[in-house]
Amino acid sequence: MLTLTELQQQALLSLPKDDARLEIDILLARAIGKNTTFLRTWPDYQLNDEQLAQFQRELSQLQQGMPLAYILGERDFWRLSLLVNPSVLIPRPDTECVVEKVLALGQGQQWRVADLGTGSGAIALSLALEHPEWQIIATDISAESLAVAQANALKNNIHQVKFKQGSWLAPLTGLFDCIVSNPPYIANDDPHLSDLQYEPIGALVAADNGLADLRDIVRLSSDFLHKNGWLVLEHGFQQGAAVQTLLKQAGFVNIESGQDLGGNIRYSVGQKC
Ligand code: GLN
Looking at the whole model, is its pTM more than 0.85? Predict the structure, then answer.
């Protein structure tokens, strides 16, 4: 029988990655149905066969490169706990900066907002949580993603978001005060993609060096915005200038970009005039 400490040490040797210690502890604690503090207060605890089997199964998924969020089936984002599975992108902390920007722009307003390509529902549901009075519509081309987003609305007790299936703005009618999106923006030859092999390629990669979907969204959004309405787009850290140019060409004004938590340019906004 192995103790928690012995299992921790063994597992660490088998998992060469930065946050291995934290991820192993989370899986160990989950296998025994305790929180991670328990690992320190009872290091000699011995796992029973069933607990050991669960830990080893999930550890081997980590070793194969599966992201922890898919193993756990959830990820925290903003003030939400979101269900995730491989049909949706795992929400990134960087996208919280996009949520913050929309909240700052819409402060004190009664807004109608569209979140395009909502995935797990991260952006739409965060906005809904902060503004129960806003009307929010979330679209996604994938029925599987929408099922996850809808489950997340229920899980977080959010009832005002409407979900519609279709490409970007296609399922929308009427005008909006803000359109927000975190579309795919990675180029198909980006070496960083090899780290993301478990996530849905359709949510990550866009043609034309990652700009194709951003371009489509900029081009189509103007017709769906009220005068003075805002378009808020997440994009790659080297795409700020290109997205600003797209916004300019489409007639947007008050264009600016903002940074993510790592200090990289991560989103741009423009206002319809
Ligand atoms: N920011 C994510 C990453 O680089 C990609 C998200 C996206 O393509 N929208 O891992």
Answer: yes
